[in-house]
Amino acid sequence: MNYMPGTASLIEDIDKKHLVLLRDGRTLIGFLRSIDQFANLVLHQTVERIHVGKKYGDIPRGIFVVRGENVVLLGEIDLEKESDTPLQQVSIEEILEEQRVEQQTKLENEKLKVQALKDRGLSIPRADTLDEY
């Protein structure tokens, strides 16, 4: 096999099923149809997979174009082992509700931490004010 540098080495992965982890934390699963030198991707029959605990749900997204700078991880899915998972698939509505509850819990825990620090005379700068320095 000839060595191909960079994204050219992914040419043989075209038309195979891949998992893509995005910079914002979303997970996409679809068939890789195109890739360029900037790692821009075109995925076909894409689903957005949401994980909460040991449950997951898939939201159909169709054709998905991903700008290369947003790709954190790209990996081929072994079709033989794909269904061999300890996770339980649930409906879209159920996983979205579980995700909402999980995010609400995280927000409440964060507020408790901020209050505990405030009670001790400490504070954490807010992310939106960090650019001012």
UniProtKB/TrEMBL annotation:
Residue ranges occupied by any Sm domain in the UniProt entry: 5-80
Subcellular location: Cytoplasm; Cytoplasm, P-body
A GO term from the CC aspect: nucleus
Xref: InterPro entries: Lsm1 (IPR034104), LSM_dom_sf (IPR010920), PTHR15588 (IPR044642), Sm (IPR047575), Sm_dom_euk/arc (IPR001163)
Gene3D superfamilies linked: 2.30.30.100
Pfam families found in the cross-reference section: LSM
GO BP annotation list: deadenylation-dependent decapping of nuclear-transcribed mRNA; histone mRNA catabolic process; mRNA processing; negative regulation of neuron differentiation; neuron differentiation; RNA splicing; stem cell population maintenance
Molecular functions per Gene Ontology: mRNA binding
Keyword Cytoplasm tagged: yes
Cited CDD domains: LSm1
Residue ranges that the Swiss-Prot or TrEMBL entry lists as coiled coil: 93-120
Keywords of the record: Coiled coil, Cytoplasm, mRNA processing, mRNA splicing, Phosphoprotein, Ribonucleoprotein, RNA-binding
Keyword Phosphoprotein in record: yes
Similarity annotation: Belongs to the snRNP Sm proteins family.
SUBUNIT field: Interacts with SLBP; interaction with SLBP occurs when histone mRNA is being rapidly degraded during the S phase. LSm subunits form a heteromer with a donut shape.
Function statement: Plays a role in the degradation of histone mRNAs, the only eukaryotic mRNAs that are not polyadenylated. Probably also part of an LSm subunits-containing complex involved in the general process of mRNA degradation.
Name the UniProt record assigns to this protein: U6 snRNA-associated Sm-like protein LSm1
Source organism of this protein record: Myotis lucifugus
